[in-house]
Amino acid sequence: MRINSAPSLRLAKLILLLALILVAVAITNYFSFYPIHRAADEPEVFGEVFLANSSYPIALVVDTSVIRQSGKSGKFSKTDWSYGWINLLLQESRQYDVIDISELNSEENHAFRSIWIFTRSALAGSASDELSALLDSLAKGARANQSREEVVVYLEAPDTLSAKNLTVMSLLGEKVESTKYSQLTQIQLPSEFTGPTVPEFRFECDGLVASDAKSRLVTLISFDSLPVLREERRLGLRILVATFDFGQMAVTIQQGKPNDDFSVTAKIKKRTGLLPIVSSDLCADSSYYFGFTPFFDLFEHGLFALISGQVSNAPLFESSPKGAFIMSHDEEGMGDKSAWMARQEQIWGVTSATLVTPAAITEKGLSEIISAGGEVGLHIDQYSYFKRPGLPGLRPVKIEYSIIEQKKSLQALMPSPKDSKISINRNHWLLWSENYTGMLRKLAGAGVRLDLSYGPIGQGIAGYLFGTCFPFVPIDTNGFPLPILELPFLFQDDEDFASEYLDSIFDTTTFQSEIVNVVFHNNTMGHSPDTLLMWGWRESFQRAKDANLPIVHYTDVIEALRKQDATMPTGILNEK
Amino acid sequence: MTWTENFASADSVWIKRILADNAEQFHGVIVALYHNNTFAWAPDYSVYTSWQKSYDLALASGHTMFTASQLENFLQAREESELTWESDSEGVEVYCQTTTAGLALIVPQENLYRPTVSTHDAGASENPNAVQIDTVRILGSPYWRIVLPQGKFLLSFERLTNRQGGIQ
Ligand SMILES: [Zn+2]
């Protein structure tokens, strides 16, 4: 017996089928236009314990167990940032030891040092008698080597100067009101270093010294009229006692000032929609954006002068006592045409770095840049182009190219194996990640040695946003250094470049170690043409020459550190 | 149009030669084209400098700078001016009336003396001395260039063969 479907049922089936097709097409279309974003899998390298002992006269003493413990809290203010000191020593001397306090028992270890820096971690919880014993032992070491100049001991008082922790100051015969000093645990840049005194500071550190005749203590630095660094001579030692946390200050300024829980993301997302963090977001104080004074490098320079008793003279480039200049171009996916700037610079007899997103460029363009004498680095882009697996019309997911994938793509395009060591990077759009060291971990994991993504972004924003143009080792949220260097830049051509920028930059660059570096994109004349930019590009080289700054590459910075045997966390100076 | 910015490496040396040739020989109108968007598709700094320098080079080689509409006005003034001549064995007489100052007559020098100038009509206010006469070369041959103020003029060229022993 045959049963025929009723016509109405057939119609219903047909309508259902059509509806299903329609929904399928709609969904497919929707995800073609709004695909699901998948981040790339990136291996991360975290901050690691870093110790070094090459018998250099400067010794930085840390307590890695204190740092490890403090890093677990996940709070910025609770973390011990003692490793921030390595950046001051990197800038001012480059040859220093880093010793865990547990390794400090040998007396001969004491004999040959001329500067001891006991960081906050090293002195955490030290009792008065322990400190006495330590100072006695150091004094003995100093006497054992009579030929040495005066031995300096820099003692960093623990963060909260509670009655228990006042031992350092008490030891020096000073009664201290603990409530006063506890305000300093939240480090802010003191007014001395933001005002007009800064330019003089580099020459006249004495300007900050206030001697108190009644006291045996000499105040070397005060912040907002509170003494924070004092000096006393006893036991044949010159003892400096600091009640401000230099390490935290260094991380706060050079790496930005994130919220206590390290996650700036929520705040930024609220403000900017879905964009990840850009480096300007890391710098809390917008008044720094407009300054062309390397205020934090100057502070480090001055502090080291107070410690060592003389202004250091350790230029990174032997030929130049004043630092160097680097011109950089972000390729922005322009492809082979981006070589036009390198070609012109060869005619001018100068050179630059082109940072490339390996999306459109070919070997031809890269050869052109390199044969014109230019340097090539990465410009990783995790924002503009993606892998889209699937079938035509059905590609519901977009997947970021990982940093390693982008690096490999670029390496494969390089004209010769010699050129294919890619060790430098700048993030396209200066985009950061979920927290302020996350991206650095990924970059370090991909073998990037020198990152250049810190710098001002936004119309009319320019200057020493992070107080520095000397490469520094970022400190991870666990309190330990990451095996990568960060070198901030000063301005981007397409963010309201003004001729005054050049006046200011080259006026203030009389400092030994600044690596003045700026960004002129390869494609700005295409989308925002302006003769001012052509002038500025050319004039930057001229001003650098007039200021006797050598025009170098980013890899020359790494090479100079390697040549000078700089003390650095493992891996940064390795060939790769 | 004489050149576009991306044509045959339009650098300053090349532009200089074109301008010099035009100033000395051809006396034509040079039109240069620099696209507004060149840097978007073919960035090249030499294009930028050739654009920048071409103004100075043009003026330095004796050219006048025109916009297209200024050129149109010039051509219109030429169109509106009147020019007639009579020629016989003794010489050539040219009658002209210009509606604007600065137009020039170019007359082959072959067998013609430097012209004398008089105002065309009695009572006209034009000063014959305001007429500037010099020699230019076009493709190697000499020509009289007679730059005229606004007004009516009579130019009289005597033939060389008409005078004894005759070279001017
Ligand atoms: Zn970019």
Fold and architecture overview:
The complex is a heterodimer of chains A (576) and B (168). Chain A is built from 21 helices and 18 strands. Chain A has 576 residues and is α/β, with parallel strands linked by helices. Chain A has a domain of 257 residues: Glycoside hydrolase/deacetylase (TIM Barrel, Alpha-Beta Barrel), CATH 3.20.20.370. In chain A, strands 3-2-4-5-9-8-7-6 form an eight-stranded mixed sheet. In chain A, strands 12-11-10-18 form a four-stranded parallel sheet, sandwiched between helices. In chain A, a hairpin with a 2-residue loop joins strand 8 and strand 9. Chain A starts with 6 loop residues before the first helix and ends in a 13-residue tail after the last helix. The relative contact order of chain A is 0.14. With 168 residues, chain B is α+β, with helices and mostly antiparallel strands. Chain B folds into two domains: 59 residues, no CATH class; 84 residues. Helix content of chain B is 29%, strand content 30%. Chain B has four helices and nine strands. In chain B, the strands form three sheets. In chain B, strands 3-4-9-6 form a four-stranded antiparallel sheet. In chain B, strands 5-8-7 form a three-stranded antiparallel sheet. Chain B has a two-stranded parallel ribbon with strand order 1-2. The longest helix of chain B is centred in the N-terminal third of the chain and has 16 residues. Chain B starts with a strand and ends in a 10-residue tail after the last strand. Chains A and B meet through helix 14 and helix 19 of A and helix 2 and helix 3 of B. The site of zinc ion has 5 residues of chain A, from loops.
